[in-house]
Amino acid sequence: MERVIAGAAAPNATSLRVIEKLGMKFVGNINPNAPDDPYHALYREDVFAETQRKERDMKVEAKLKELGLVLPEPVKVPPGLVLPFSWVRVRGDRAYVSGHGPLNPDGSVAEPLGKVGAEVSEEQAYEAARLTALAILASLERELGDLDQVSAWLRVFGMVNSAPGFDRQPNVINGFSDLIFELYGPEAGDHARSAVGMAGLPLGIPVEIEAEVEIRGG
Questions:
Q1: Which of 25, 28, 77, 181 has the fewest CB atoms nearer than 10 Å to its CB?
Q2: What is the rounded CA–CA span in Å between residue 173 and residue 198?
């Protein structure tokens, strides 16, 4: 019985309500103080499985709200910059996501700008990758209508605006991957990934990320 974290007999309505609410299982007439009463127990593995199920079933939008995260508005394109392409292109059961950078909630480009390992620290770049994930999620939501339409993250390509000698690009792009895992879990959130250094990125952003996802009902 070492795996049991709660137990109850069922001699009255109050006990029955507790048993039903907690989802206890009947384990026999094992209570020495009441040998004629059926005994129910709640097991650790059952609690763990139920917690995992609730986390899996919780909608991505609800998880974002729980984490206090806000999806940004569409990117505010600076004057003189022309972007003649779709941010998300859907074909069949795939959605191909163009390269995104870190955005503020109003859609403006988030600072700091510059090269990671020089003007931008590794920790700041990690946060920029996290903001980039939010920007990609915002584009997916606008295109698909619901972030739960994404059934699997397939491929992520991360680019880091790197100062000479900076070689920890994977640590930076972990800011993206960690948030996707947190929102989608280890199965749907798992993805193939590259993290590479670049001599420069548009507008001096420290991170740019593109992705490919599988979608439902494609």
A1: 28
A2: 13
| Helical (H) or strand (E) element with 46 | helix 44-57
The pTM assigned to this predicted structure is 0.75
Query: 3-state DSSP call for residue 170?
Result: helix
Q: Please, what's the b/e burial string for 98-120 (b: 16 or more CB within 10 A of its CB; e: otherwise)?
A: bbbbbbeeeeebbebbbbbbeeb
Sheet holding 25-28, edge to edge: 4-9, 39-43, 25-28
Identify the CATH assignment for 88-215 out of 3.40.140.10, 3.30.1330.40, 3.30.420.40, 3.90.850.10: 3.30.1330.40
Burial of 163 (0-12, 13-18, 19+ CB in 10 A): middle
Which residues, in sequence order, are bridge partners of residue 203?
Answer: none
Task: Tell me which amino acid residue 48 is.
Answer: F
Q: How many CB atoms lie within 10 A of CB 126?
A: 20
Closest CA to 55 of 173, 150, 188: 188
For the stretch 148-177, pLDDT in tens is 999 999 999 999 999 999 999 999 999 999
Q: Which residues, in sequence order, are CB contacts of 42 under 8 Å at separation 6+?
A: 4, 5, 6, 7, 22, 23, 24, 25
Crossing angle of helices 122-144/169-188, nearest 10°? 40
